[in-house]
Amino acid sequence: MYYFYKNEFVHKQDIQISPDDRGYYFGDGIYEVFRVYNGQIYEGAAHIQRLERTASEVRLQLPYSNEEIIDIINRLIQGNNLVEGTVYMQITRGEAPRAHPFPTQAEPIVLAYCTEVKRPLTTIQNGIQAITQPDIRWLRCDLKTLNLLPNVLAKQTALDHGVQEVILHREGTVTECSASNLMIIKDDVLYTHPANHLILHGITRAVVLRLAHALHIQVKEEPFTTNQLLQADEVFITGTTVEITSILRIDGQVIGTGTPGPTTQRLKAEFEKTFLQ
Ligand code: PMP
After folding, report:
1. Ligand 1 center from residue 97 Cα (angstroms)
2. The complex's ipTM?
3. Which CATH class is domain 121-272?
4. Nearest C-alpha to atom 5 of ligand 1 is from which residue?
5. Fewer CB within 10 Å, N or C, the chain?
6. 2-116 matches 121-272 in fold
7. Is 2-116 CATH 2.60.40.10?
């Protein structure tokens, strides 16, 4: 596997990360995870757009054009013969002695590499279980920054409870999950939290809403409560790696019939038809 670091394609063992990298000691950086199916980048333009938006909101100047970023990703895919997997790219604000103000001299540092990842077919087919937890993150969850400690803690809490995901809520209003967006179906209507500052604007969230419109499923981007969540007919998560995965039990309570629901199945079938055939 070869990596991209500081303007070069290099072997992993040749990368030297400086202790002065602001990404390392402040989490002062941003990232994206691109999905690769069949050697091709999935929804590349949408990922680039989100990266640009996050960069501009945290006042970090991207060192490359959109075309150059896509070129780096494609060269990683080709150079590593990646057929199915992900490309991780992070950009930190650069190297400077530890001090809060933006450094005047530092250049942003790009790190990118790919990982082979198979589609999680078992959970896509059979669903998962989740627990609910308070959402303790900051108020800019729409920005894809390196500061993921609350998400890491939430995910570990799920694993400690023997389930796969945590559904986050702010005083009873469901936002999203530790590493995915959440949607529910109630009386044939799809509900999901609006794409504001409280959730990450997921690429697969947008894809699923597009597919729902195409399938004439009514969509309401409105907040809903944990009670409505538990009363839903179907609950599922969306994300670049989880795709569309049903949640069948929440806090030990069975959702709907306890099996992946019919609307979720229609969306999954449409997703596979659109991206995987
Ligand atoms: N919310 C959070 C907190 C995430 O980390 C992610 C990405 N894994 C998502 C939602 C889903 O976003 P995407 O569809 O772009 O992967």
Report:
1. 32
2. 0.99
3. alpha beta
4. 179
5. C
6. no
7. no
